[in-house]
Each structure stands twice: as C-alpha cells, then as structure tokens.
Amino acid sequence: MKILKEWIKVQEEEYKKEHPPDFVTHINYLDYLKNISKGLSISCNLKIKNKILESKILSKKIRLLKLTLKSINAEYETILKNPDYAVVCVSWISVKSYYLLFNLLLIIKYLITGNEDSFSCGHDGILKSLKNCLRKKELIFNKEYFNNIYKGRSVSKWKAKPHANIKIINPNPKERFFQIIKILMRYRIEDFKRKEKVKTLNSKKGRAFLDESDISICEFFYWYRIKANYRDLEFLDKDIADSRFKDYYCNYYFLTMYFYKAFKDLINELSTIRLGKNILD
C-alpha cells in the first residue's frame, strides 16, 4: 500500500509538471470561449440611414487590419505544419488578436457615429463605448452571454469551487463562464493596483473603483493583452508539450476569428448604408 501511494504521488507530480495548473486554466477558458463563440454575430438596432463622407483614416485602419490578419493567419498555418513553433507565438497571439478587434471596434464606432474623431478613441474608451451600446441594446450579440455586463463588486464576491478551473472532463458551463468573468475582474483590479501603486482596495479610491467598475466577457481580449504586456505568461517557462501549446494557439485563433467575422459582417452592413459599399473582404 505504501509503495502504491508513493507511485501515485510521483505520477501526480509528473502530471502537474506537464500540465501546470495555470496553463490548464487558460487553455480551459480558451476552449470554452471558442466553443460558445462559434456562430457569433452582432447586430445594430440603431436606425442609421444617412450617408457620410469617407474618412481618409478609414483606409489606413483597413490596411492595418489586413496586415494584422495576414500575420495571424500566417502564424496559424505555420503552427499547423510545425507545432513546435507554437511556443514562440503564444506570447504574441493575445496582443495581435486584441489589436485586430480593437481596430474593428474603432471602425464600428466611426460608422455608427459618422464622426472621424471615433478613430482617436483609446482602449478604455472603446471598451466603455461597447459596453454602453450593449446596455442600451444598440448593439446586440446573438448569444446572450456576450450581452451581459456584471458589476465589479458583485463579481468580487462570487465564490469559486476549489480546482473547478482546471477541471477538463464535463465542466459546468455556467460555472466556467463565471470563472472567466471572475479572472477578468481580477486582472482589472490588479491593473488598478499597479497604476495606483496600492496593495489593497481598502482606501476610499479603491472602494469607489470597485463600486463603479463593471466587466463583460467581451473584455477578454483586452485583459489578456494586458496580461501578456505586464504580467507575462508564466507558464511559458514550464515543460509543456508542443502539442499543448499548439492547442492553446489554435483555440485563441478560432476564438479571434469568430469575433472577427461577427464584427466584419456588422461593419459591411453599416458601411453599405453609410458609404454605399462593403469595405472588408
């Protein structure tokens, strides 16, 4: 019996080395989001009828979109042929994906408002704009998960079941969704602490932040970009099989492409009204 227990312990330790909990957590989240994002679409409920003059900035944004998309697609094709290349790419996919979608959102904002100043909207501003449109039901996703917005203080009180984030077989879909919302809120809190140079939210400013903040699943790309920029991807230095890095990248890729298609279709719908043509292939 003692020998059996020691053997089991060794096997568990070996498994954890090859499947670090932080890596398993992120790949679980990506796999879940990829699955629920398949077939995603977004529609505009605003009565937009007037044509506008085409901004010169628009062509620059479209060119940037095409270059970013080309880069992501090229990496994906390379990884399919050479899985060991995935470890090099996983640290960049969150950055490239975010900027692809960020520029799509800027174009959507421009086509809705008809105002060229929309292109100067910053990262915080475009997220607030998107969430505001979702609240007012001016923009509506075809899947309700993506329309919901949660108050920061409420999310901070949610209790997660131990080790539920690393469960692979038959995870609870609703529980997994809330796990993702909770980790996004955690990243937002960490970012606030980093910028304000504080360790807790016990101050007046910290409590106000928690009361005023909210979070949407659509912020996933932004906060994972922040994670790549400031917190690094801790699991990159661990002994993980190339095939698992490939899985991570491919999940991120398809998740990105589902959002890309949803935003692209909306842009072409709006640009047909505003400019009399489709602007994205």
Explained architecture:
The radius of gyration is 21 Å and the shape is globular. The protein has 281 residues and is mainly alpha-helical. The chain has helices at residues 2-18, 21-37, 56-81, 86-113, 123-135, 152-157, 173-196, 204-212, 220-231, 242-274, and strands spanning 42-44, 139-141, 149-151, 214-216. Helix 4 (86-113) packs across helix 9 and helix 7 packs across helix 9 (220-231). It contains ten helices and four strands, in the order ααβαααββαααβαα. The strands form two sheets. Strands 1-2 form a two-stranded antiparallel ribbon. A two-stranded antiparallel sheet has the order 3-4. 66% of the residues lie in helices and 4% in strands.
Order of helices and strands: HHEHHHEEHHHEHH
Biggest β-sheet: count, sense, barrel? 2 strands, antiparallel
Anisotropy-based shape: globular
Give the % helix: 55-70%
Distance between the termini: 65 Å
Estimated share of beta-strand residues: under 5%
